[in-house]
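Intended use. Records like the one below are meant for learning the mapping from a protein sequence to its folded structure. Do not use them to infer anything beyond what is encoded.
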Amino acid sequence: STWGNYTRAMEASSNAVLAALQSQWTALTESFSNFELLFFGSFVLLVGVYFSFGSLFLVLDVLHCPASLYEGKLQPKRPFVPQGSAWNPSAWALASNLVFGQVFGLLPCLYVFALLAESGHGVRVSAALPSAIEVLAHLLGFVVIEEILFYYIHRLFHYSWLYSSFHKRHHEWKAPIALAASDAHLLEVVLANLMPVLCGPTVLSAHLATTWLWFVLAIVSTQLHHSGYRFPWQPPFDKQPNFHDAHHEFFTCNYGLLGVLDWVHGTIRYGPKKDE
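Structure written out for the chain above:
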């Protein structure tokens, strides 16, 4: 039957893709040591995805084109000003703080992350790729762990002197952009940004391939949350980036990522859909 031919073709195609991925992964594990993959590989992936994906939004922020996408900006009265403004730090301050955080925050954290894995207490590296069931189960676990850690650590940073001493830097972005997702004090970078992302794979002893997929998803999602744009193709049930944009606009709400713990603790606020 036509349906039978279609399913067989799809199965053959997926098997071919999986075989190609397995071949590339095997070659990667044979070319580099476990530590090199865990430390250097993770660093290159995280930095590469962060700046490449964030730069796509920067083009939109600076050039305001394509106009059809720029129309989705949630705070159009607060455009990104490269020289700095009342609602955003300068591009130079952003770039220098990001590099500082990656050198003195990301690198040390990845070093500990790699050492734990090498000692058998963290992410595992093997030539065989994990099953789809394992990947999905671990990704779900990562989301739960990140939501719990990020909500409470983030909320803690909003208390009194912790806010004024550390978290206030990030809230200089009253109208955030994608690249500002990790623009924060070094202590916040380590405790609020990196620890919730790295803890899941470490605690669950996930496969490195799953961990790298998680890194990509985590970066893309946090930059989308900070982008300040809502695009036409986003489904109605997706409350981001309105959810986190409202946090930057109003400060004392929406501390989490999914909104679950904000709902539990009564700190949820969606705010206006768009600043007209």
